[in-house]
# Entry
Amino acid sequence: MQNITLNNGVRMPILGFGVFQIPPEETEQAVTDALAAGYRKFDTASAYQNEEAVGRALKNSGIPRDELFVTTKLWVQDDPADDNTKRAFETSLTKLGLDHLDLYLIHQPYGDVYGQWRAMQDLHRQGRIRAIGISNFHPDRVVDLIDHNDVVPAVNQIEVHPFFQRDTDQKINSDNGVVIESWGPFAAGKNNLFTDPVLTRIGEAHGKSVAQVVLRWLIQRQIPVNAKSVSPDRMAANLDVFDFTLTDDEMDRIAALDTGTTLYFDHRDPAMVSRLGTMRVE
# Structure
């Protein structure tokens, strides 16, 4: 497995397994199958409501803790954000059955972000978290957070796929020492991604599927990614992307698919800010 070295020296697998929208009752089996396929990096969140199932699968696998890389995410916390963030962290850690996290992210750029970040910095200094980061932060918010705090986020997990490629975001984050990580790499199949003629023809040239082409495209851009599936066959296929290389021409053809806009929702939309910012997760 190829790794990405984060700004504090922590090495993170470039390809992992995500459990967003996998129902809790199906998550344990999905993670168990993913472990059997060879995944060692797992991405969940308190908002996904399946941390306990992830934790059971990891524990029952018998795989040594130091071979696993586990990420979860903090939901929006209001004042007193410091106390609430640390309480939420302990809750997630207990549900996962772990004594530390490899990566802890602020899930949404709302609420008392600075109070949340200060608490996460404390947990990082205590050795409870190997690396801390953010999710869904636009470049201006990334820079502002960096300028007013001690620890530079290691990761910014954002929407990245062939139809929303985020080149400028990647450059600004990278220039500030932040690795962008892709969520939604397959765009939930929107814009007919899995039958897109450009991606299909590139896949045929390598004997690979569209999904494998997308994952390889991200890896060649040095963008870590988490792929989700409940099918063991697809899990294995998604890992089988290290035996081919996209040519410069193929990378350029994929670049031409960029629409420059989200296929989900704008995190700066006032209605969405209010909806997510006021939603609470136990």
